[in-house]
Write a structure and sequence with these properties.
With 272 residues, the protein is α+β, with helices and mostly antiparallel strands. The protein is built from 5 helices and 11 strands, in the order H-H-E-E-E-H-E-E-E-H-E-E-E-E-H-E. A hairpin with a 2-residue loop joins strand 9 (226-233) and strand 10 (236-241). Residues 1-17 have a biased composition (Low complexity).
Length: 272
Amino acid sequence: MSSDDGGPLPTPSSSLPRQQAHAESGLAEDAGEVTSEIVPSRQPRDVSHALSDPNWVNAMNEELENFEKNHIWDLVEPPPNCRPIGTKWVFKNKQGENGMVVRNKVTLVARKEGIDHEETFAPVARLEAIRILLAFVASKGFKLQQMDVKSAFLNGFIEEDIYVRQPPGFESAKFPDRVFKFRKALYGLKQAPRAWYARLKSFLLKFGFVIGSLDKTLFLLSRGGDTLIVQIYVDDIIFGGSSHTLVSSFAEQMSREFEISLMGELQFFLEL
């Protein structure tokens, strides 16, 4: 995340031990997913509690690095009559199959919106429609694959001028009165789901897909006598078709456009 003068990321609390944070950028050492045996199993009560644990600091920095990578916002002087939205950190432990905590997941969300927005609706697939799709692909002998898009809502573009206060615990010491202006959507914004859907739909249509006439979350691609089907459910995507080459090409193109996790052949989806 850059300021308008090229300044560094907001700096975390100075009370953090020196070995857990860079002195200049405020980024914890080795930020990223925490998957070792020392992953803390207790979720923080609040931001101050999280900032006292280097594992959670790493997870918070990973979230902010996603913002920087996706060019989510810019640190700017607040314009006249600016009413910035508050933000909050949401802490959650991710468990593995054995019930052990394997990752500390942190999400920065908008706390409250100060303005009204239009066009906030985003279509969501009905479970009945997904069941019909599963029955159809089974009859065709297609093998479905599954992927999810990391930080999906951060990929959606927004048209309104929206400002937020700096994240708690990561305020800029040099520019404490500045606010962040969004380029893209943030979790918690009313229009975030629609912005993400619009971005993904635009990409799929450029790829050659045709959107379903009744189900706007179903996309079909016909190429050289082969068929590829894509069903989206917010940031979860299932896909498959008659051609392995076509399926692989789609996965490759998605990975170039978005940060995704390929989960292999579909085994479990929305408890179906």
